[in-house]
UniProtKB/TrEMBL annotation, chain A:
Ranges annotated as spanning the membrane: none
InterPro entries: Thiolase, Thiolase-like
Name of this protein: Thiolase domain-containing protein
Naturally occurring in which organism (per UniProt): Streptomyces flavotricini
SUPFAM superfamilies according to UniProt: Thiolase-like
From TrEMBL, chain B:
Organism of derivation: Streptomyces flavotricini
Origin superkingdom: Bacteria
Gene3D superfamilies: 6.10.30.10
ChsH2 rubredoxin-like zinc ribbon domain span: 193-224
InterPro entries recorded: ChsH2_C, ChsH2_Znr, NA-bd_OB-fold, Thioester_dehydratase-like
ChsH2 C-terminal OB-fold domain segment(s): 69-132, 229-292
Name of the protein: OB-fold domain-containing protein
Length: 357, 319
């Protein structure tokens, strides 16, 4: 291990796979979309589905409007006779957290974590209003772009960004995504376009699409056996803001900062940051909370959520992308972040490290 | 349908609609009843802040908080966003600004819509007031929206007992989401075959089980079921129940029999209604065949074939 672990067991991401993220996937059911990615991630480790100690998935039935769709996707892992598995109605990053805890308890040595989002059958902006406070917010149907725009305006009013700076974040993300064959939106020439909800323009918003991600976790010597250079999770923590939007300072993210402190982000420099910022303005908030103010850190070399944002998978993809850079020897210490809810409501931060060659 | 996705991708509208009935705590009840009476209430937190809209528990200490205060119907915009294309269900049908407003006397902000002629008429720090809905029921929508209001803040929070005649104790929140359902490769093939009155399952290439209806994957092997296999048309009742309760919008006389039917060649039983035989004569092992109705996309029900009953050993693995 690169640093002394504060946890009972050393756990690493040993494999990561994702689908090509696309605007629609009408010709595939959810399990048909998920299964190839499960096979790819298992192939990387040489493990068979039946050899996995624990399986955990993340998804939301509201996205495609299909009740219990996650039980259908379980067919894709060979869940009969019954395997040890669980599901979170959250981004797969939180499924990874549950799997990491399961391995910490000693009940499993390996875990398969996957998540998927099929937003194309519905109107995801409206669907996401159903996760809001049912008394004071949901009856007004404030959509995800509107809430992000309120946060963006607060940042502009505070002098922390402006529309040109937001456009630069969007352009940088999609330029970086040129090297990412899975990205949905890539190329520096992607237009900023018109206002969706002012001050956010089309370019400040994530593409809407369908996609899948999967990782394999393993503990100790098993991780070393399955992967030439495991991405050790040396810290992981998640925190949530008060749920009243009007109670929060929307220009800051105390939950991200505290999670980062507990994950040990600030104990040593990082060379890579994969941030789950679906809106350009949210990168401004996250950079501040994670103290990523210089150019010495590669921020979202994958293109981030502005290049592909399959809801419920985009956070897990951040962990997977950071881990894959460590696997490839392109990073030694990376921070990965995932978010959930409106205006960066809930935030998970993980530190991933590779051993010296 | 595109040339790149043969066979034809099936699509159908799917509506998910719920009237969520939710009960209110004492603070929420006072707040929403107050809106009905055109009174805006907040709650004092443990550190003396006035929260509007109010909650039942202190967000910092988790203490139960019950000290209500009345705040103004006027306030100040703390942030805004111009919504040029209102979406279904939103407070106004014409372009408006989403706003967070700190009402006079409050320390936190409330989300709502601001009716303004255009984005140039909106700024952070502008003064606004509540425009009340004509008909109020005790809901956040009793505030129709905010409107510009050029007057200085004067009001302070004043104590309020939260008592109103006929307090609201719950809300009914309607929610409707519209989807376009497409069943995917495996179920599309199944549905298309049904249109020709054929039942086509899929075989697992690994364990060779035939799944009907197919879901695209073998749950034992975790691989795609790709080989199509026509099964039936006849099958065996593996188990059944007698339905005595009439379902809403279902034009079937009770009692009737609902059964698991293993079609010949299938390794999984499907569900179907049994007709053409008195309900109390249906039994495990009964041999049945599908009955189609004109224009139906699946069998209406199954009826006895008249063959001798199947041996228990022939279907016991499929129960």
């Amino acid at each position: 291990m690169p640093t002394t672990s504060r946890y009972a067991r050393d756990v690493a991401v040993v494999a990561f796979a994702q689908s090509d993220h696309r605007r629609r996937s009408d010709e595939l059911s959810e399990v048909e979309m998920v299964m190839p990615v499960l096979h790819q991630v298992l192939d990387q480790t040489g493990l068979k589905a039946g050899e996995i100690g624990f399986t955990c998935s993340g998804s939301s039935d509201y996205l495609a409007g299909r009740a219990f769709s996650f039980t259908m996707t379980l067919d894709g892992v060979g869940a009969w006779p019954p395997i040890s598995e669980s599901h979170v109605e959250m981004d797969g990053a939180w499924a990874l957290y549950e799997a990491w805890v399961k391995i910490q308890t000693g009940e499993a040595d390996t875990a398969l974590v996957y998540s998927y989002g099929k937003s194309s059958p519905g109107s995801v902006r409206d669907v996401l209003t159903r996760q809001l406070d049912p008394y004071y917010l949901a009856p007004l149907w404030p959509d995800s772009v509107a809430l992000a725009a309120l946060q963006a305006q607060a940042l502009i009013d505070a002098g922390e960004t402006d529309e040109a700076a937001l456009a630069a974040i969007a352009a940088r993300s999609r330029t970086a995504a040129e090297a990412n064959p899975h990205a949905q939106l890539r190329g520096g020439a992607v237009e900023q376009g018109d206002y969706q909800v002012r001050p956010l323009r089309t370019g400040d918003c994530p593409p809407i699409g369908d996609g899948v991600a999967a990782v394999v976790l393993a503990a100790g010597d098993t991780a070393r056996r399955l992967c030439a250079r495991p991405a050790w999770i040396t810290g992981i923590d998640h925190r949530i803001e008060a749920h009243g939007l009007g109670l929060r300072d929307l220009t800051d993210s105390p939950s991200t900062r505290i999670a980062a402190e507990h994950a040990g982000v600030f104990d040593a420099p990082v060379d890579t940051a994969e941030l789950h910022a679906p809106f350009s303005s949210q990168e401004v908030v996250l950079r501040k909370a994670l103290r990523l103010d210089g150019d010495d850190v590669a921020v979202n070399p994958s293109g981030g959520a502005l290049a592909a944002n399959p809801v419920m998978a985009a956070g897990l993809i951040r962990i997977g992308e950071a881990a894959a850079r460590i696997h490839r020897g392109e990073s030694d210490r990376a921070v990965a972040h995932a978010t959930s809810g409106p205006c960066l409501q809930q935030n998970l931060v993980a530190v991933l490290e590779g051993e010296p060659a | 349908m595109t040339a790149a996705s043969p066979p034809e991708v099936l699509r159908a509208p799917l509506v998910v609609e719920f009237p969520f009935t939710r009960s209110l705590g004492p603070v929420q009840s006072a707040f929403l009843t107050g809106l009905r009476e055109r009174v805006v209430l907040g709650v004092k937190t443990a550190d003396g802040k006035v929260m509007v809209p109010p909650v039942e528990y202190d967000p910092v200490t988790a203490e139960e908080i019950r000290e209500l205060v009345e705040v103004g119907a006027t306030g100040t915009v703390t942030t805004w966003a111009w919504n040029g294309s209102p979406r279904p269900g939103q407070p106004l049908g014409t372009p408006f600004a989403w706003v967070l407003v700190r009402l006079d006397g409050a320390d936190t902000a409330i989300l709502h819509a601001l009716d303004a002629p255009g984005p140039e008429a909106v700024r952070t720090g502008m003064r606004v007031r509540i425009r009340w809905a004509g008909e109020r029921t005790g809901a956040i929508t009793d505030i129709a929206c905010f409107e510009p209001h050029d007057a200085e803040a004067t009001e302070q929070a004043t104590p309020h007992d939260g008592q109103f005649a006929d307090a609201v104790t719950g809300i009914v929140a309607a929610a409707r989401l519209d989807y376009t359902y497409s069943p995917g490769r495996s179920q599309t093939a199944y549905i298309n075959a049904l249109a020709d009155r054929r039942t086509v399952g899929e075989r697992c290439p690994s364990c060779h089980k035939v799944y009907v209806p197919p879901r695209g994957a073998c749950p034992t092997c975790g691989v795609a079921t790709t080989d199509q296999v026509e099964v039936g048309p006849a099958g065996t009742v593996t188990t059944y129940c007698i339905v005595n309760i009439k379902a809403k919008n279902l034009d079937i006389e009770v009692p009737y029999v609902y059964a698991h039917i293993a079609l010949d060649g299938a390794d999984l039983a499907l569900h179907g209604r049994i007709g053409g035989i008195p309900y109390d004569q249906v039994r495990m092992g009964l041999r049945v065949e599908p009955v189609w109705t004109e224009g139906g996309r699946h069998p209406d029900h199954y009826r006895p074939t008249g063959e001798p009953d199947a041996d228990y050993d022939a279907y016991k693995e499929l129960i």
